[in-house]
């Protein structure tokens, strides 16, 4: 029997050891290997352009995300933050340029290769994305049953460990309709790490949450990232909460990376765009109104 520490649920932070039974196909991720690759980039966008029909979203996006870091992707609503994640996962294809994830050019992969790559990714959806007719326990067990040949007793142990890591082991038998917004978000986080991914993506993890829940989710993102040696991408328009947990920030605007930098520099930046976004100022480079014809012309008063 192989004694190891499972790396997908924050067990390392608690110092919990788990023993893999004979016959299990579960492979223990090795933190030392991940840390040895710490300086390599896990995601790279090179001159990426993309549009939904005639609506240009990206014209020339270039960014890199190093392994082991928590990186923030920020921008106003409609700037293309979620589209970036869809490009990373291969759900969308760039019209030009390349998206490279874990050394593979995503837009060149076939179906089977893409599914294998996605297996190494975890995703926390904005609204939790839970199966409404399955209990919390069954929501977490689902990907393990679908993607592995683990015995049921091992699946049960792993589910409870992952729920314990997000503080919801006692909620295993609840249905999604019985969860608060913050609890649903935490269950979504636990499911995102169900298969021990190397890359975890969070889509607006703080949206619609009260201050206490925001703080809890932020602390979990930071703690799990550091304890497991994974890479986290936090996509959000909430600069206040995001800057508490991220190491580096990219700001997306007008189809390009408008600004970027380490968190400390971003907080003190005097760049008009960054300053307006971080401080929530009403006046600045980011307009309030969506592009339109003159107001008076629509009202037929001019």
What does this protein structure show overall?
With 302 residues, the chain is α/β, with parallel strands linked by helices. The chain has a single domain, classed as P-loop containing nucleotide triphosphate hydrolases (Rossmann fold, 3-Layer(aba) Sandwich). Helix content is 34%, strand content 24%. The strands form three sheets. Strands 8-9-10-5-11-12 form a six-stranded mixed β-sheet. It has a four-stranded antiparallel β-sheet with strand order 4-3-6-7, covered by helices on one side. A two-stranded antiparallel ribbon has the order 1-2. Helix 5 packs across helix 6 and helix 6 packs across helix 7. It is globular. The N terminus is likely disordered.
Q: Outline of this structure?
A:
The protein is an alpha/beta fold and 302 residues long. It has helices at residues 11-14, 31-36, 81-88, 111-118, 136-147, 152-165, 181-192, 211-228, 239-242, 263-267, 272-279, 295-298, and strands spanning 2-4, 18-20, 41-52, 55-66, 70-74, 96-101, 104-105, 121-124, 199-203, 231-236, 248-253, 256-262. It is globular and about 70 Å long.
Structural key phrases:
12 strands, 24% strand, globular, 302 residues, alpha/beta
